[in-house]
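Run NADH-quinone oxidoreductase, M subunit through structure prediction, thanks.
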Amino acid sequence: MNTILFNSIWVLPLLTVLACVLIPATYEKTLRTIHVTSATIVLAIVCYLTYAIYALSGTPTDPAAAPLALRFFTDIPWLSMFNAHYIVGADGLNMLLLALTAFIVWAGVLVSLKIKGNQKIFFALIQLLATSVYGVYMSFDLVLFFVFYEMEALCMYLMIACYGSGKRDYGGKKLTLTLAFGSSMILATLFGLYFESGATSWNLIEIAKTTLPMDFQMWAFPLMFMGFAVSSSLFPFHFWSPDGHSAAPTAVSMLAAGVMMKMGAYGCLRVAMFLMPEAAKIWLPYVVALLIFNVVLGPFIAIRHKDLKYITAYSSISHLGLIFLGLAALTPIGLRGASLQMISHGFLTGLFFATIGMIYERTHTRDITEMGGIMRKMPFLGVGFVLAGFAGLGLPGFSGFIAESTIFIGAFQQDSTLTRIVTILAILSITTTAVYILQTANRMLHGPLPQKYESLTDGCFREKLVIVVLVACLLFIGVCPGWISELLDQSIAPIFEKISSAGL
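Sure, done. The structure for NADH-quinone oxidoreductase, M subunit is below.
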């Protein structure tokens, strides 16, 4: 039964789109009800299965899923001529990322109920985007993985170009073309993996059992790693993020920053590092040098911007750099911290972009210099934004503190001098983060209230519900991180074992 429920995670959003095909676009209330219901059902299924994964920890797993301890394992022939199978499964890492995705999709649907334009198409694109992200996290066949990975780029472009604001066509094209460039690098290495592993299977589990030639790993690992890193805005492929976020509607920004940008880091860990551990040991120290921009210069750029989405976008670039710092540490604690940061940052940016969208819907501006004193009219939304800022600072009690502290400890365990220097710089950059977050909150929320904002209203029930749920998730992870760390450790152990046992 649980296996059926697990497979339904990506199927239900797709069925929702098909169910709405024959419903006229004028029936907006019916369409909204269907999509909210669908997102809620998927969220309930994912929460139940996440609990089930935790309850099953320590019990034997399907031998076919070794060396990864996967639950709800499914292996069905798919494209026989290409040796591709429909292979999905769950462990603590991808199940937690599925839970993150379900929460952000649910929240994104709720905040978009008053989106202008053709709501039928907009919500269909959200569901298709959700289908692709769910599929990426569930897949263990590389062909299936790549198909789902590519779906999201087209959905993102259509949603930004058709429903965005400002330079939406430019922002959408920049995002899509940059992601396509990264995907081309991934595709080239996938073919190499297939043939170098014997040309018999695209199964990630089976390929992991083979030792790939070192000369292949030396060119394939950096190509694949950087191809995935494009989605996660690793320098120098970060430039799509600010323009893409600034042009995107609220739900798209939430999904892009909250879950799509984690797909790249997940691919780096689950595919590149797991399948090519020898090359990972050689190349990842060079990645640390790139992080100086992400974790140090990113916050300084955020200080200079006045647009709320640009500020949040550069904040995300900085926080995502910490994920790569944890991965590059190549220690169990570093990998755990990187995984925790994926989840923590997903909820954080979801909350940030949700509150920014709610404020923009009322003020019709994202320029903090044009605001001031709006806390008096929107106390709930203002508090939500401030709490997102506190979580972004890594304040104790929030998830960011646990994730970032774990990364710093894991990185210091690495003997590399460069890694320790970058870690120290990352810790010091928290001060810079405090500057732009406090500066932004002060300019927006305090001071004299402009006359044009006298009629502003606070958040409605659904908006308050989104803020409460996302804040609760940040607090829950920050206060009770033990069970999440336990799930992640079980997932990371096979990956770290393969890396630590790799000979050079």
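The first strand starts at residue 71 and ends at 79.
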